[in-house]
Design a protein that fits this description.
Two copies of one chain form a homodimer.
Chain A lengths: L7 H9 L7 H8 L4 E5 L4 E3 L7 E5 L3 E7 L5 E7 L18 E6 L1 E7 H10 L1 H27 L2 H18 L6 E2 L5 H8 L3 H13 L3 E4 L2 E4 L2 H8 L16
Antiparallel strand pairs in A: 1-7, 2-6, 3-7, 4-5, 4-6, 8-10, 9-10
Chain A binds a DNA duplex (30 and 30 nucleotides) through helix 7.
DNA sequence: CGCTGGATTGACACCATTCAATGCCCGTGG
DNA sequence: CCACGGGCATTGAATGGTGTCAATCCAGCG
C-alpha cells in the first residue's frame, strides 16, 4: 500500500525523533508552526539554482531530490527525500541556492517560512540543535555517497544506495525491507554516476543473486544481510538513535 | 615561501571573515578561546572512525584531510583542509566520528574544547550562525565533489579540484593562483576517484595545455580562465562573501 | 489502439585501471 | 663523498569495467 500523507506535525515528529528526543513543550511548538501545504506534480522543480528562498519545504509524500546539471547535459542527483525530510533547510543560513530541488514523484509538500522556523528555534534552542543535527547528518550522507561513487564497483554502489533507502524509509515508518518510491533506473544512474544501461545490468545481477525483487516502482529486500555485505553498508553514518537502528 | 603558522585567533578570523562579518565584541571573544596547540607529524591520524571527541581541531599550518577506507583497501578523501579550517566541527553535535581526520602534511594544529566553543556560542549567538554557515558550506563542497566525481571526465575533475584549492587558499591569504600544499598524485586520485596513473596523465595534459605548472609540492596557475573552463568551475557553491570572490 | 515512459538486451568502443618498470629527488649512513 | 633506500612521478602495454548506440519489449493510458 502506497503510504498516505500524514500531517505536517506527524511528518516532522517522525523525522526529528529519529535524531533527537522531543519534549512535549517542543512538540506543541511544532504543532503551532504555520505552514502552507500544496500538491506538487511529477517532475516539478521546487527550487532552482540562484533562487533565494524565504521558506523551507517539508516533504509529506512522494519523492524529492536535490540535483545539479553539468556541461555535457548529465545530471547528478545528490540526495533523495521522502516523508519528513527538509531538503532545503540550508536556505535558513545560505541565502542563494547552489542546486535544484525537484519532485521525482508527485506528492504533498508543506512550506514553512524561515521566519516561523527562526522563531521556533529562538524559543526552543534545542530545536536549533535538532535542525543542526539534521543538517550534519545530511552532510554525513553526502560523504557516504562520495565514498560510494568514488571508490566502489557498480554492484556495491547500487547495493549500498538501496540499503540506505530502505533504512531511511523504515525509520520514518514507511515499511520494512521495502522501498515504495523506488527511483527509476535513470534516476539511480544519475545518483550513482552510472549509465542507465549499467544500472539495469547491475539490478538484474542483484535480482539473480536473490538479494532483491522488484514489482514496478516497489522494491523488496529478499536478503538483507546479503545486500548489506554486497554494499559494505554500515548505517553508522546515518547517526540514528540506537532505538531506531536495526535490521 | 611556505607560509608560517599564524596565531589561533588570526586563523579563525581569516576563515570566519570569508563567511560572515565579525563585530569587535565577537573578535574579542574568539581571542579569549582557550586552546592547546601541538605539532603534528606527517601522516598522523588525528581522529579515527568511532572516536568520540571532546574537542575540535583547528588547522594552523600543513595539510589535513577527512578520509574513509573501503573494503578493497581503497581510500576516499572527502575534503582537504588548510589554515583556518575546522575539519571536525560536526563533532559538536554528532558524538561519534564516521570518518578519519588525518594530516597529509605535517603542521600545527590547535585543539579547542567543545565546552569552550559551546560557551562562545551561548554568549554570542551570531557565532553559532557563523559555525552553522561553515558547516553548511562544508556540505555544499561535498555536493560539488559528488557532481565532480560522478559526472565529469578525469580532465574536468582534476581542473575543478585545482580551482577549488586555489580559491580556498587565496581566501585565507595563502597566495594568489598558487597552491603551496599540493596533494600528491596519489592523494588527488583518492580524492577524485581516479587511479594515480590516470592522475599523472591528466596532470601532464593540463601542463601541456599551459593551464598549470608544478615545481615539487607547489602548483601555479598559468591560465586561470582556461582552468576554470576546463573544470566548469563556478565558485558560487563556496558561498563566499562578495568581497572575497574574484580571480 | 497507438503513444509514451521505463526496462531490457546485445554489440561494440573507449576511458580508466592494473601491472610493471624506470627515473628522479633527497635524506641517511657508511 | 658516494651508495643506498624511500617516496613520488612517469611511462608503456594489456586488460576490463562502463558507456554508447540501437533495437525491442512491456504496461499504463488517453
Amino acid at each position: 500500500m502506497p503510504p498516505s500523507s500524514p500531517s505536517i506535525q506527524d511528518a516532522l515528529f517522525r523525522k526529528l525523533e529519529t535524531v533527537v528526543n522531543l519534549t512535549s513543550e517542543e512538540r506543541k511548538a511544532i504543532e503551532r508552526l504555520p505552514a502552507h501545504v500544496r500538491n506538487t506534480g511529477n517532475g516539478e522543480t521546487l527550487l532552482r539554482e540562484g533562487d533565494r528562498p524565504s521558506q523551507c519545504c517539508l516533504i509529506l509524500s512522494g519523492l524529492a531530490c536535490r540535483q545539479k546539471f553539468v556541461g555535457n547535459g548529465h545530471r547528478q542527483i545528490m540526495s533523495f527525500h521522502i516523508l519528513g525530510d527538509l531538503p532545503d533547510l540550508q536556505s535558513l543560513y545560505l541565502d542563494v541556492m547552489d542546486h535544484e530541488v525537484a519532485m521525482l514523484r508527485s506528492g504533498k509538500v508543506a512550506f514553512i517560512s524561515h521566519v516561523a522556523i527562526r522563531e521556533l528555534i529562538e524559543q526552543h534552542p534545542r530545536m536549533g540543535a535538532a535542525f543542526g543535527r539534521h543538517t550534519l547528518i545530511d552532510a554525513a550522507i553526502f560523504r557516504a555517497w562520495m565514498v560510494n561513487i568514488g571508490r566502489r564497483s557498480a554492484h556495491s554502489r547500487v547495493a549500498h544506495l538501496l540499503c540506505e533507502l530502505v533504512v531511511l524509509a523504515r525509520v520514518v515508518g514507511l515499511g520494512k525491507k521495502v522501498i515504495h518510491h523506488l527511483p527509476t533506473q535513470e534516476e539511480l544512474g544519475d545518483a550513482l554516476g552510472l549509465s542507465i544501461v549499467h544500472i539495469n545490468r547491475t539490478m538484474r545481477h542483484l535480482r539473480d543473486e536473490q538479494l532483491i525483487a522488484t514489482e514496478g516502482r516497489q522494491l523488496s529486500i529478499l536478503d538483507w544481510k546479503g545486500l548489506q555485505r554486497a554494499g559494505e553498508f554500515d548505517p553508522a553514518y546515518l547517526h540514528l538513535k540506537r532505538t531506531v537502528v536495526g535490521g
